[in-house]
Write a structure and sequence with these properties.
This protein is 16% helix and 34% strand. With 1122 residues, the protein is an alpha+beta fold.
Length: 1122
């Protein structure tokens, strides 16, 4: 039987799904049998249950379990609380938890055979245990009672796939897609089933749908992880019987216009000789939104522009006539942004003539830095300008739109200067004057592309290739030949792909979207009776229902239209016989009310339309990549360019941070998020301009929320945990030398070293039932390609110790990874840094309290503000003992990212690896080895052979500007140790599993610690797209260096067990362990080569037969995105 297929793009699914009849029926169904004892519940009981649900949302399973257990003890017949207890129990993942949860669920079903949540959870647990027939019975009960439960159908299909019932599995995958068109897992499951059923064409279509949803904000996965198992496997609050009716808002959308500023007594509003421009920003850093009105006055008194500061006491603005920006003439528009990431807003003035950049430092003090910043843009008439991180390197660059010259891109070098790039980047078209530029991620690949509107078509669309290069985009032929005077971008259907909205010279508004072939097609939305003289468009939510509206200039003002599929309906018209407003800007003055509108209305000056009562509630957000002034950042401090989507109840909404209006200039103000009648935003998902993903939970309605980018370690290397007799103890990271595509400059990448040997701390690894257990865990947004893992024991006679020839080698002899045996060490008598501080105690004990490296460069992660010197003096000449002298170092490094390396390159700020110098007996300093290397990651031990020391050396010096922490430094003397015994321990078992993310804490000096026992199932990470290794046994993938790799990603681990040696140690002997690994890692940094995909798979050039055979068998699990 052939099952017909359904694809979700055939229908339109609005983000604001109404609570319809089906939802009420499902709610009633869920409440069947769930009201036992309801009347006896006290408010405290309900509050306790809700608290437990909240704890589950934070993945605090043990705490939630304690809450539910207490409730169940007091109310043993409260079946929903029993199910909540079972859910908390099996998510805790301790030994015996699954059986305990099954017992709880069995008791519930004995009392209430129709309890769907109990059936569903029991079915999932039995499926996880491989008891397929029993699981199928429970899951089918759920699907028959609730046929729209997509997750029930999905897991039924998973069972049927394992039972080889392909046609039935396809039917249930199809039902899952019908029930939830955004459930990505259902498409991939259907793809696998169809492929196995030899329905190749249908399988291809399902795979395309799966990939199409990869970056869709509303897309979700079905997995055996909390919040991803479906609503019936989530802890449930005590629902009220029946939902309250949705409130119908009454009253106007905006109040009558108000003159919010007192007319000046000695200043005259200009009479229309120059175009007036409005922008908004918190200019004086007082937390209140201010207005800048370019060309507000006639300039006869030397005051040209009006700077109006917010006055919250009476809701009016106050004129700052003596502000230096008020006296700058010929201003067309202003762009507001923090150009130096110091936490203070700066201003770029687009002018008729040389432009000006004014820096605010300190707060309230403004300085014209145009000349030193090399940013005047020439003697053109710059009609528009805006800040954006065009190259995604953590700072703000500038785009200039000139009326009489080609457009320009001024790149921020982060050294206080800018450089022009438009010509070399492929953007400048000689002889063509641009009207406007719209920045937007047109191809949804995490960077900013450009739509350039010229005075005369054709227009141009440029896709960002990063590294200062753009290319013309295909698929925009119709748009490029359509006359347009304004354009904005918005993601109104919240599918991750922006729509473009344009305004023609004759007043027609069109929406542009890409069809399935990638061709952008127009949809006519509105025809104005008469266009406005100063065209302006905005797409933003002003009603508070979570759906953006269209704001457009009219002949004498502005109007608001509801977007309704292929048309519009008028909601508000500002037109008044007494007012004629040439330009306007939305203003977010209060967090609860949403946008007001300020307009410049001829002789009456500034008018403000406050929010009216005819709207729902809002919350407001301010984003910043800066936590505290002076700290290192990855995204710009103004938060410009972040993608924001919010989940409110059953609704999704997206908010624009680049250019929400098409008018010239750039405001910098809070984002207004409409939340309807809900009490809070459930969560906000943010894709920062550096490519980092972050989510924030539970943002209350009516409040302003400041969100800063979490400065977490997004990529590094996989972590190593070892069983120490009581727990899996965190050791360090591994394969830090094996990063793929790590950028060191434009088009330049560091070669990976595809192996690393790691010496485990003495006494750490303990056997368990005759086996040593190690875990290689990937907790970050990267992929690991593990080729081999060998555990080697070294038995050492009394008095001997072991180090490895290991480091991140830069220059000098390459590390070999071989063991270096020694009996003697010499610690320094004194250690002094470049600041004259004695740090001897900090470098003579390996205690994770390192010598302080000095102030950090706030611009670049892992770099110091100045060179750090560490001078070490020893009691004897370093060659005074027998053996080869070794520099023995315990320490760690803070790695920069690829993006950071590019940013530092453009600023001419090099990362200088440690250089070793020695002082001769004559007192002269000589270089022993230029940039020899450093510890390759988190805390570990490295060595460097001292083969070229001047005779008699007692003092050496380390010199670097990298953020390296020297914990312990000594000189060891390597000698042969013939008695040492090396044994490679056999692999007993190796498995790949999904385990979640160990809790990270970061101590002083960035010392990381991970707690394996405290793991969360989900984190703000994405998978590189590609075929990963199937979960389960993988021993044959990691026992040989053959380029056949085990590939795993965020939240996954390779657990390896080695057979412990049976031979006891002789008296006085010690046993040390070395983990020898082969493989690679790759992160998703925007500048990492091929950082979006697993491919191309790395290789050392070995024969391909084994690799292809094993990869064909194991690499069967496709993952991509979140």
């Amino acid at each position: 039987m052939t099952v017909p297929l359904f694809f979700p793009h055939q229908l339109h699914f609005p983000p604001l799904a109404p609570r319809g009849l089906i939802g009420l029926l499902l709610l009633a169904l869920l409440l069947i049998g769930c009201d036992g004892g309801r009347a006896s519940f006290t408010p405290d009981d309900i509050a306790a249950n809700n608290r437990g649900v909240g704890l589950m949302g934070r993945f605090a399973y043990e705490d939630a379990r304690a809450v539910f257990a207490d409730l169940v003890q007091r109310h043993p017949d409260w079946w929903d609380a029993q199910v909540n207890l079972a859910i908390a129990t099996f998510n805790r993942q301790q030994t015996g938890d699954e059986e305990s949860a099954l017992n709880i669920l069995g008791q519930v079903l004995q009392a209430d055979a129709h309890h769907l949540r109990a059936h569903y959870c029991r079915g999932l647990l039995l499926l996880n245990q491989g008891k397929l027939d029993e699981a199928l019975i429970h899951l089918r009960v759920v699907a028959e009672a609730d046929p729209m439960d997509a997750y029930a159908h999905y897991f039924i299909a998973q069972v049927l796939m394992q039972q080889q019932h392909l046609d039935q599995a396809i039917q249930h995958y199809q039902s899952a897609v019908t029930g939830d068109p955004y459930l990505r897992s259902a498409y991939y499951g259907a793809f696998q089933a169809l492929r196995r059923a030899s329905r190749t064409d249908d399988a291809k279509k399902m795979l395309e749908e799966f990939q199409r949803l990869q970056t869709h904000p509303q897309a979700r996965l079905a997995e055996l992880k909390y919040t991803r198992m479906g609503p019936k496997a989530s802890a449930m609050t005590v629902d009220q019987l029946g939902a309250p009716p949705a409130r119908v808002v009454q009253g106007p959308l905006f109040l009558a216009p108000q003159q919010r500023v007192d007319p000046p007594t000695d200043l005259r509003w200009q009479a229309g000789d120059r175009a007036v421009n409005l922008t908004a920003s918190d200019v004086n850093q007082d937390g209140q939104l201010d207005l800048f009105i370019a060309n507000a006055f006639d300039g006869t008194t030397g005051v040209h522009n009006a700077i109006l500061t917010g006055a919250p006491a009476d809701g009016r603005f106050m004129l700052l006539r003596d502000h230096p920006l008020a006296r700058v003439a010929e201003v067309n528009a202003v762009a507001w942004g923090d150009v130096d990431n110091d936490g203070l807003t700066d201003a770029y003035l687009c002018r008729r003539g040389p432009n000006q950049l004014w820096r605010q430092q300190p707060a309230g003090t403004w300085t014209d830095i145009t000349t030193t910043a090399q940013v005047d843009g020439g003697n053109a008439d710059t009609r528009d300008c805006f800040f954006v991180d065009a190259d995604h390197d953590g700072d703000l660059d500038l785009f200039l739109v000139n009326a009489d010259a080609p457009l320009e891109l001024l790149n921020n070098n982060l050294d206080g200067t800018f450089r022009p790039l438009a010509a070399t980047a492929g953007l400048a078209h000689e002889g063509r004057a641009a009207r406007a530029i719209l920045p937007a991620d047109m191809d949804n690949d995490r960077d900013v592309d450009l739509l350039v509107l010229y005075v005369e078509p054709p227009h141009a669309v440029f896709l960002n290739d990063r590294v200062w290069h753009y290319h013309a985009a295909p698929g925009f032929d119709v748009l490029q030949t359509t006359a347009s005077v304004a354009a904005v971008a918005a993601d109104t259907n919240v599918d991750g792909h922006p729509e473009l909205y344009t305004l023609t010279p004759l007043g027609a508004v069109q929406r542009w979207q890409a069809d399935t072939n990638g061709t952008w097609q127009p949809t006519p939305l509105l025809q104005l009776p008469q266009p406005g003289a100063a065209p302006n468009l905005a797409v933003l939510d002003v009603t508070g229902d979570g759906m953006p509206e269209l704001l457009v200039s009219t002949a004498s003002g502005w109007a608001v239209y509801r977007l309704e599929g292929t048309g519009t309906s008028l909601l508000f018209d500002s037109t008044s016989p007494a007012l004629s407003c040439a330009t306007w800007v939305p203003l977010v003055l209060t967090p609860a009310s949403g946008p007001a509108v300020a307009g410049w209305c001829g002789n009456t000056g500034l008018q403000v339309w406050p929010p009216g009562p005819g709207r729902f509630r809002f919350a407001s957000l301010t984003l910043s990549g800066l936590v505290d002034a002076g700290q290192q950042t990855r995204s710009n401090a103004s938060g410009i360019g972040a993608k924001v989507t919010a989940r409110i109840g059953s609704r999704w909404t997206a908010v624009e941070t680049l250019r929400p209006t098409s008018a010239s200039g750039q405001s910098l103000q809070p984002l207004a998020v409409g939340i309807g009648d809900e009490e809070r935003i459930d969560f906000v998902a943010i894709d920062w301009s550096d490519g980092v993903f972050q989510s924030e939970l539970d943002l209350a309605a009516g409040q302003h929320h400041r969100i800063t980018e979490t400065q977490r370690q997004l990529s590094s290397c996989p972590l190593l945990f070892a069983w120490d007799g009581a727990r899996y103890a965190f050791v360090s990271d591994i394969l830090g030398v094996a990063g793929l595509g790590y950028a060191t400059g434009p088009g330049e990448y560091a070669p990976p070293r595809p192996w690393e040997n790691f010496l485990l701390p003495p006494g750490l690894l303990q056997s368990h039932q005759g086996h040593y257990q190690l875990k290689v865990v990937q907790p970050m947004e990267e992929a690991t390609y593990l080729d081999s893992a060998r555990l080697v024991s070294y038995d050492l006679p009394p008095g001997w110790d072991l180090a490895l020839d290991e480091r991140m080698g830069i220059n000098g002899p390459a590390p070999s990874g071989q063991p270096l045996f020694f009996q003697h060490e010499m610690e320094p008598l004194q250690a002094v840094n470049e600041r004259g501080e004695d740090v001897t105690a900090r470098v003579t004990t390996a205690d994770l309290r390192a010598a302080p490296p000095g102030p950090l460069d706030p611009r670049f992660l892992g770099r110091l503000q100045s060179e750090h010197l560490l001078t070490l003096t020893f009691a004897q000449p370093l060659e005074s003992r027998a053996g080869q002298p070794l520099l023995l170092i315990d320490g760690w490094v803070e790695y920069p990212y690829s993006q950071t390396m590019f940013a530092a390159w453009q600023a001419g700020a090099a990362y200088i690896a440690p250089t070793l110098e020695a002082r001769t007996v004559a007192g002269q300093w000589v270089v022993v080895q230029e940039q020899f290397g450093y510890p390759a990651g988190m805390p570990r031990r490295m060595t460097f052979p001292l083969m070229a020391l001047p005779k008699g050396t007692t003092t050496v010096r380390l010199r670097t500007n990298m953020e390296i922490y020297w914990d312990r430094i000594a000189i060891a003397y390597a000698e042969p140790c013939p008695e040492a015994r090396r044994v490679e321990l056999p692999v007993r078992d190796a498995r790949l599993a999904t385990v979640g993310f160990p809790l990270r804490t970061t101590n002083s000096q960035r010392v990381p610690h991970y707690d394996y026992a405290r793991r969360t199932p989900l984190w703000d990470t994405r998978h590189l797209a590609g075929a990963y290794t199937a979960l389960g046994p993988i021993a044959e993938l990691i026992t040989h260096d053959d380029d056949a790799v085990a590939i795993f990603g965020p939240g996954e681990e390779v657990h390896v067990e080695f057979t412990a040696p049976l031979t006891p140690l002789p008296g006085g002997w010690t046993r040390r362990f070395v983990l020898e690994t082969g493989g690679w890692t790759k992160d998703m940094d925007l500048y990492t080569k091929d950082g979006e995909t697993l491919a191309p798979l790395p290789t050392t050039g070995k024969a391909v037969e084994t690799r292809e055979r094993l990869h064909g068998r194991y690499q069967t699990r496709y993952e991509a995105g979140r």
